[in-house]
Amino acid sequence: MRVAAAQSGPIQKADSRQAVVRRMIDLLDRAKAQRCDLVVFTELALTTFFPRWHMTDPAEVDACFEREMPSAATRPLFERAREHGIAFHLGYAELTPEGRRFNTAILVDRGGRTIGKYRKVHLPGHAEFDPARSFQHLEKRYFEPGDLGFPVWRAMGGILGMCICNDRRWPETWRVLGLQGVEMVVLGYNTPSVNSQKPGEGPQQRMFQHRLSLQAGAYQNSTWVVAAAKCGVEDGHPLMGGSMIVNPDGEVVAEAATLDDELVVADCDLDATAFGKQTVFDFARHRRVEHYGRITGQTGVILPPEE
Ligand code: CDV
Fold first, then answer.
1. 175-208 pLDDT per residue, tens
2. How close is the Cα of 124 to the center of ligand 1, in Å?
3. Cα(188)–Cα(45) distance, rounded to whole angstroms?
4. Mean pLDDT over all residues of the chain?
5. Residue 183 is a catalytic residue
6. Is 120 an active-site residue?
7. What is the per-residue pLDDT across 3-21, written as a single tens digit (0 to 9) for each?
8. Within a 10 A sphere around the Cβ of 82, how many other Cβ atoms?
9. Which of 120, 139, 189, 230, when mutated, tests ligand 1's pocket best, judged by the most ligand atoms within 8 Å of its CB?
């Protein structure tokens, strides 16, 4: 299938949902012109990356969340995608009827039906204002950890899975998806270009770590990976780009050239995942689960006893 990572340029705090959705519809139209089957939008695609702000006014926080999907503002996106016969992935801040808050992504099929939902498991950052940081990363304040695990879906003639941003840095994410035979993992991200706690860690190192995570995840689980950035300068804060598509050998086959709205397109043959899954990463033949107990039995590090 032909897939597009729909990279998003910056979204300012003052930008309306309607303006953002117009930009996304423009990307969908471009994807249609390029005969794409699936478009992957980014994490928290409808707003600025608001966890950088320490907000104390509940109304201001609520304004960043979606109570329904589609909503009046996002329905035109669903309708245009259905008209084009394009499936899509969309990340947004979810406020449930029970008042729970998640960093969520959905998978919508070519007919406009939501067929999958994922809620971000690995929430980076902190819950309270941290004066030691050059900017905040308050995901632990605004969201609770995802409660849906890492499911996969039979869709688009293959097996698709999702994760969100920081999840891509955790091998556990990839392996849980890999153990379900995943053939394509789609994800969005908002990654600041600098580390708020380590000024020396700038865009080059961050890009290296991003590529390393995606390429390792793809190779070690023999899966395609489609990653879409929100990037550029949002309200004075730079986010890195680097949207890309990685093949099951871990090679980057398409990559963004800008820090703006841009489609990164590749033809992804899902059958190309079979070789790795049947050889070096044939889990059934080669995994040794009797030695992996610590992975699920223990969270933090336990040091060996002192001599
Ligand atoms: N949105 C994110 O999850 N961002 C993190 C930052 C904090 C490093 C990331 O892993 O890219």
1. 999 999 999 999 999 999 999 999 899 999 999 9
2. 6
3. 8
4. 98
5. no
6. yes
7. 999 999 999 999 999 999 9
8. 17
9. 189
Domain boundaries, the chain: 2-274
Task: For the chain, give the number of residues.
Answer: 307
Cα–Cα nearest to 256, from 87, 46, 40 = 40
Q: Which is nearest to 134 in space by CA: 202, 183, 196?
A: 196
Q: Which of 36, 43, 234, 277 is catalytic?
A: 43
Percentage of the chain exceeding pLDDT 90? 99
Query: Residues 242-279: pLDDT tens digits?
Result: 999 999 999 999 999 999 999 999 999 999 999 999 99
Q: Which residue's structure tokens are 């204002």?
A: 129
Q: Give the pocket of ligand 1 (CB within 6 Å).
A: 43, 124-125, 137, 165-166, 169, 189-191
Mean of pLDDT values over 204-224: 98
Query: Which residue, among 37, 272, 243, has the nearest Cα to 155 in the 3D structure?
Result: 37
Report pLDDT digits (tens) over 115-142. 999 999 999 999 999 999 989 999 999 9
**163 in catalytic set:** no
Catalytic residue among 36, 165, 231, 268: 165
Question: Could you tell me which CATH class the domain 2-274 is placed in?
Answer: alpha beta
